[in-house]
Amino acid sequence: MKLPAAVRTSAVRALSALLAVASLASCSSEGAVVIAQPSVSLPPLLPAGASLLNPAELGDNPLDQCQPPLPLRPYQGNHDPIPGGRLDRVLARGRLVVGLDQGTYPFSYRDTATGEMKGFDVAMAREIAQGMLGDPGRVEYRIISSAGRTAALENDTVDLVVKTMSITCDRAKDVTFSEPYFETDQRVMAATNANATTLADRRILGESTVCAARGTTSIAQFHHLFPTAKILGTTTWADCLVAMQQGSVDAITSDESILYGFYDQDPNLYFLSALQLGRQVYGIGMHKGEEELQRVVNGIIEKIKADGAWADICRNNLKFSPCNRAPSTPQYAPEGPTAP
Fold it and tell me: What fold is seen in the domain 184-279?
């Protein structure tokens, strides 16, 4: 049967196209028609707001330069609030406003199943609300970044900051701290792979890219010890875990208790065991000069250390940290005969 002319023409064109493609595919490299493939070079993936920090702006400020001011002793017996003072305003308001974040597992984070705030620092905030207001639920949480902790106090955005805030001389210029409520060590964590083991060599670590949250003491201390390393600054500690998993950094430096939280979420991480970068002591931050509030908070911390509540908070929230003993008994500032 003879096909119509239009059909014959269409078939010839299709066959010609197939032969052309086959010819290109079968050509040798000599004299072959090369079809250029697009080449795309993408920068490493980074969490939102993350960037390499300028070494010139980090300074050289080791944590052991000086001894921070000693806290004031708790009130003995009952205490009537000073009219118009911070404590008086908290009682009148009927709730305590606390600054923390929702991305520092296991200290303060939002439970994805329930939407509730959980963690060691959250439990501490509830204990303080219990001591002040008689109800652990009378807490209003304000989400702040590590870099924004001091500003939140100065702006009266919060009454207290309970956010893994290390007590240092530099911070004590602008913040009044409670007595210590937690102690840990700064360390370094890397991914478990053949190359990561070489980071134990201090020279190689000094040539690496290491992640830390902005506004933390981890940055200054690490830069002091490894001034040639690159530091990726992030908004939250959770961002550092993301950066590590995306391969954007070689390691993370933070407090051991926070790093254990990373390990709990991703067992493909491990500690560089030979590196202990310094002791970190957490305090509850208050507006500068809040002596009344400092004494009241110190009394609550002393109570929960003594009655076992602190140990319960630790065991319930910090899977890998030792909870058999509370932080050491603080030394209080000397006071005159008129002190309360």
Answer: D-Maltodextrin-Binding Protein; domain 2 (3.40.190)
